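Field: sequence (string)
Field: structure_tokens (string)

Example rows 1 and 2, in order.
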Amino acid sequence: MTEDDRALIDRFLDMMAAEVGASPHTLAAYRNDLRRSVEDLGEQLVAATPRALSRLGAKWADLSTATVARRSAALRRFYGFLSDEGIRPDDPSGALPRPRVERALPRILGTTEVTEIFELLEDRASSGEPVAVRNLALFELLYGSGLRASELISLPRSALRKGQPFLILRGKGSKERMVPISDRAHAAVERWLELVPRDSPWMFPSGKKHLTRVRLFQIVREVAGVAGIAPERVSPHVLRHAFATHLLAGGADLRVLQSLLGHADIATTQIYTHVDSARLIDLVNSRHPLATGNR
């Protein structure tokens, strides 16, 4: 393994520990899978081409489906990290093997829990304290627009324009997407921007740069704990899942949801149909022409 690979894997695992709250056991498993992938590739991991990654399927032919799925998932997450950080201009992970396995359901929060969080945030923001005003704006964009953590912290100050009901941002894989912003989120962000130094290029500055993903993760957990929700249940990604699940429960179309979340493949979005399966079954029973008609 090259020094570059080793250093970037360490950075990736630091992010997994801070942002996702991965346990030591999970981090060790990721490290092992990435190390073995380097051995199977026979070349530098950080610079691997899609063609090189596509050959891993033959290398892994004798492994169990679960092992292949786990190694592919580790590599996808690693290359997604490299893309988000601007270390690679592309994400080659689409060439990796995709064995069919049952996907785990995402962790989500109930609407009552989300309400409790926002009641706390709004009460604190009413004091006008800058940190409280900032935190309300952060949560409004995480839950109200379903932004990824990396998309949120790197928002430029100019991303929000007066009278414009959406943000145009550069998301995963450097792809631009348009994200609607609710009236309440718009108001919360406008209020926060009044407190941001005029010469800052970032919407959420911190020192000479923008807020880090690690700090965002800490803020989200701190707020959850004060709201009486177990901190380990909440993260920026969990709020994104809540955004998607609650929209689907409210009747959002799956294709619309795919666009809002910035998913390249609708199969990724379809996980939410399992989360909200009861509502979808009820929808079929109540709306299908043959549900109530005579045959």
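Row 2 begins here:
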Amino acid sequence: MKHGVFVVSLSMVVALVVLVAVEPAEAQVVVLKVGPHGTYASIQDAIDVVVSGDETEIWVEGANTYVENLEIDAAFAAGTLALLGGWDMTFAARVFPPQDTIIDGNQAGRVVDAFGIGGSLVIDGFTITNGFETSSGGGVRIDPSGDAHVTLDNLRIDGNTVISASGASGGGLQVELYSTQRIEVLNCRIKDNSVTSTSGGVLVGGGVNIRAIGDSSFLVQDCEIYRNTLESTGQLFGAGVWFSLRDNVQGELLDTPIVENTTESAEAWVSGAYIEMRHSSILNVERSAIALNATTDGGAAPQLWTSNAEVSSLRMSDSIVALGDEDGMEVRADHTSTVNLVNLTVADNQGTGIVMGQWGSATMTLYNTISFGNLVDLSVIQGAVVAGSNLIGVDPLFVNPVAHDYELRLGSPAENAGDNNPPGGLGLLDFIGNPRIKDGTVDIGCYEGIAEIFSDGFESGDVSAW
């Protein structure tokens, strides 16, 4: 009995030792403080002491301008690194908005260059400005390796420049993704960036250029991309954005206006956004505005151009394309690719509102969409488009198109007139975030419901509602 008791007790002790041995230790976050009241005078000084594999946060004191050209290279191969702007002088709280923590590239190179990095990188709470490059990424270049995950949050990427004798891209932000890498661009304002060729080169992505292959993915959400420019005597594609998706890439563009971007060339192809998709790539676009993009110097370019091939799939819903100086949107699908356009409002473009072309065995659908007030509202240049529950060339009774208000007013033929089960499916929310179905049947166009000023009951004589 004693021997048995001894054996059981020893087993219990061994078990406890094993449990203690496998208990994971809490990761220790290394905090490096930068600024007049911090340990490091410059952000680069702090980056240079980061140990790959550690969890590191670099806290940057706000209300300051840091004249730097930051480099985060392949030496950071694992772990986490977060650059966080806006701290007060005691480093007790983040109190300053992005415009008050400035990283100024001084026209001496890219402002932030993250090349060959691994692990997790977060850059949050800065203005990134005055960068200069001769190829790509005047403000920020993200070119990671391995399974890196990059988050750009709450940034102002403003006033950066790329000038090249040949082709160039990404005046504000240049992203190259391979393998399983992912980038999330959230709550960022990307404006007044430019790409110029002095010798007629092909230019793409004046504000943002994302090229993704392999099994990589990206998300652009709650951003503003505006007043970016491309200038060359050569071909220009997307003064606002250029997205190129290949292989098995999955991308999302959500809640993001792409407006007032300009291409300056007689050879301009696309003024606002260019989307090129190949292989098995997938892109979902929701609640975004592509508007007021323009072409100067004799060019004639649509605001949005999408090109789908192989078995790629594009879905675009609850969005608006309006007020272009040429065509609104041109959508092309080839091979066995799929394009589903759902609940769009396309209005007041000086050329054709919607141009669609279908080749091979591709599938193109257009449902629950308004196209009105354009020079021509819809043109199918090739193939067949499956269409249903649209208002093409029929006055939808916009609230005030002169003031760019494309909500619906009382009596609109778009109210409760859509298809609740369109190809590609309905979005959960309309353009401004209201539930997509209000009264049992979806409305046509990007807005759900009648504008509030027209829905208070006053028009029917019921002044109690007023």
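free_text_note (row 2): Residues 28-301 form one domain.
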